[in-house]
Fold this sequence. Notes:
Blueprint: H1 3-9, H2 12-25, E1 34-35, H3 37-44, H4 48-60, E2 64-67, E3 71-74, H5 79-100, H6 106-125, H7 128-143, H8 149-157, H9 159-166, H10 176-192, H11 195-226
Helix pairs in contact: 2-4, 3-4, 5-11, 6-7, 6-10, 7-10, 10-11
Amino acid sequence: MDDDNFILQKSLSEQIADELKRRIWNKEIQFGERLLETDLAERFDVSRSTIREVLKILEIEELVVIKARKGTYVADFTQQDLDEIIELRTLIEVNAFKHAIPRLEKKHFQDLEEITEQMKEKVDEENWNGLFDLDMQFHSYVVNLSGNSRIIKIYDSLQVQIRTLLMHLDQYYSSHQSFYDEHKELLNALRSKDVQTVNTRVKNHIEYVEEKLLGVDQKNNLEVEEV
Length: 227
């Protein structure tokens, strides 16, 4: 589907919600920051009722928290959130990739190769957000080939949460190149069509971050104990 046509099919409130998500992922809007209806209505030149629709979309996607008589705040993203999403993503993707393997054809590999080539451009630009957006495209593309409509639906419902997780990852990768290299290795694993190889690559790619997080936590705990 053409991106421009897809955008045109979105309602105004959905388009504004997408823009706010982009600003959160770019860290222009911080976790825990209060979002005021009047400010947002003025910034986007829309009615407050439209902004209420926007905030409701973001609340459903668990990106904001609406507190009675206190206002609307960007949801904090905790260590537990990170752990749960990494675990759920691993469970879904390992299974989805396994089912996608026999469905992969020449055109699919060409499309995935194109995504990884776009990643290379983002590496040269040192653009983490661009890399993370392309990571979403890569993984969603394969999941959508799984043939399991329920897995696809569940994964789609997690897209915002997964993308929010990704914005934390730049501090755990040694370089943009290493993130790109992982996707090249994952693509090569898919080309092999060996289930065990693909499973290992998917797990390593997703759980690499969990290992880094655990390493950081353990280091912090040791520092606290020493003090």
